Amino acid sequence: MKDSTQDTAEWGEHQEWQWNGHRCHWRHLGKKSHPPLVLLHGFATGCGHWRRNASALADAGWSVYGLDLLGFGASSQPAGRLDNRIWARQVHGFLNEVVGEPAVLVGHSLGGLVALSCSVFFPQWVLALIAAPLPDPMLLMLNPTDLQGTRRRRRPWRRRLKRWVVVLLCRLLPLEVFVPLVAHSPLLDLAIQTAYRTNVIGDRELHRLIAWPARRPGAVRALRSMSIAMALRPLRATAPSLLKRLRKPMLLIWGEEDTLVPLEVARQCQRFQERLTVHVIPGAGHCPHDEKGQLFNTALLAWLDDLGPQVLDSREWAKRAHGRLP
Fold first, then answer.
1. Cβ distance 101 to 315 under 8 Å?
2. pLDDT for 294-313, tens place per residue?
3. If DSSP codes are grouped into helix, strand and coil, which group holds residue 228?
4. How far apart are CA 73 and CA 210, in angstroms?
5. Which backbone phi and psi does 73 adopt, to 5 degrees?
6. What percent of the chain has pLDDT over 90?
7. What CATH class has 13-155+234-321?
8. DSSP assigned state of 99
9. For the chain, what are the domain ranges?
10. 144: preceding bond cis by omega (within 30 degrees)
11. What is the pTM of this model?
12. Order of strands across the sheet with 36-40?
């Protein structure tokens, strides 16, 4: 166990939690009597990526948790199915067994999709959610009308054919060569730079944060498992369907110059969920929480302050429903 409250990738108190036989790494910062807020990282990173945010959120009166999703950070890298449904169940287990009460979820990129999934699948455990940004190719492939009424089920032979093709292609990918090559070479710095608008080449802490999990023995099998599972998700597990079913307050924070998930996707999200709020951070790329940490924290806290009693009242109601208040 290690404790640090500085604005570094090693923020907070580190602990491990066992979930379904898997080791899950998590952090905490702030007073546990304060309302909980759980940070969910994006692809290829871990909860250390919230280095610019955790202490500011704790100072603002939140009990801040960070969780490494399965396959990433210091958590286990299993070979089984890894998609947003599994990660949502992991977050639900974390809220139930570690946090002990409903929380606000904040997710970066893939973590935003996980936060959305958990909010729809386990709404009684989520007060509100923030996604920064929300990636899912289906957002550009579907229209709201595509989700209306009863969709014709794909014939079994077509489902089997799709699964066969996806599995074959993912197994043919030379990940055993590609992942170590990138993780141990300057190519990693170039890959990281694509997610940022400002120059981050030379940021050794950021490099280590992403390089270390990619160099672990289970990194390739976890990546292959995730690639297969995410490609074969049912429609109900994609962002368009999840947004349509969402009943919780939601904020989207988007980097104005995000080239990986362009701002156009945020506008498409609003077509599926009109009640969500979009906040654009100028001069930021795909990682606004890290690149423009102060602006990100200000926007997030202002939105939560505007919700005010709505979040805290629902928190107290949820605690009573779970028998934690008389």
1. yes
2. 999 999 999 999 988 777 77
3. helix
4. 8
5. 55, -135
6. 71
7. alpha beta
8. I
9. 13-155+234-321
10. no
11. 0.90
12. 13-19, 22-29, 63-67, 36-40, 103-107, 126-131, 250-255, 277-281
